[in-house]
Amino acid sequence: MNNDRLKVLFVGNSHTYFNDMPELFSRMCRAGADLNAEPVMLSHPSRTLEWHLREYYELRFNLLYGHYDYCIIQQAAHPFPGKEETLRDIARIEELCRKGRTQPVIVETWAEKRAPEHQAIMNETYHEAADEHDSLLAPVGEVWQSMILRHPETELYWKDGEHASPYGDYLIACVLYRVITGKEASGLPDVGIDFLKGLEAGPDAGLAIEDKSELLESLDPECCRQIRHETDRICGAL
Q1: Taking residues 94-98, what's their average pLDDT?
Q2: Residue 133 has what pLDDT?
Q3: How far apart, in whole angstroms, are the C-alpha atoms of residue 110 and residue 24?
Q4: Between 166-181 and 21-33, two packed helices, what is the crossing angle to 10 degrees?
Q5: What is the pLDDT of residues 123-170, one digit of tens each?
Q6: Of 135, 238, 231, which Cα lies nearest the Cα of 184?
Q7: Sign of CA dihedral 235, 140, 216, 212
Q8: CA angle, 44 then 50 then 54, to 5°
């Protein structure tokens, strides 16, 4: 990795690209670590890692020739495809990462708002995947769960109870920042991205804010402080 530059591939689904989360992560890297993080995405709505592996040539080319420092691996979450399938497919993508000299980062996803009991199997699965292949683990689900228990007033979910709100994506970006840079999230700015701002998302809508100058918005400083605190507390304990 270049001392002042990161190239990061995000492999996932709508939970990956919602609220332009990779761009928010990139902005955090610049603000908190003086790193020029270049995010690239292979993310399609409602797609599992198994689907990405069926589209093997796209993934293969990027990991063999893309010269990425990190690959963020995010499984579908709602519904969670199950432990066996997830472990199998993460292992295959990790293998491609190694061949391309790219460090895998496994995202521990979060449970649906209506079914918090699903969090336990997600945590178990992603810890096992990271331990088996010496990959980095981004414990998003654990930080998310802790925020719900300690600070339920901060709404992490979008209105569907599955995708992230701007605060949820702030949390995800904080965790990735902490895991990848190794720096505490405590000094990060209180800004997020809402790429819809009242527009309706959906397969036929094709709507999102296109003027980048309108994307950043100030978030509640206390909510952001709580998210950063939980991020540093949980990531520091791993």
Answers
A1: 97
A2: 86
A3: 19
A4: 50
A5: 999 999 999 988 999 999 999 999 999 999 999 999 999 999 999 999
A6: 231
A7: positive
A8: 85
The tokens of 166 are what? Answer: 């701007």
- The answer to whether 140 and 175 are in contact (CB under 8 A) is yes
- Contact (CB, 8 A) for 89 and 75: yes
Is pTM beyond 0.85 here?
Answer: yes
- How many Å separate Cα 12 from the centre of its chain? 9
* Structure token pair of residue 221: 């400083």
Q: How far apart are CA 80 and CA 13, in angstroms?
A: 12
CA atoms of 27 and 38, how far apart (whole Å): 10
For the record, the structure tokens of 5 come out as 């530059």
Q: What would the two tokens of residue 24 be? A: 């928010």
Judge residue 136's burial from the number of C-beta atoms within 10 Å of its C-beta, 0-12 exposed, 13-18 middle, 19 or more buried. Answer: middle
3-state secondary structure of 210: coil
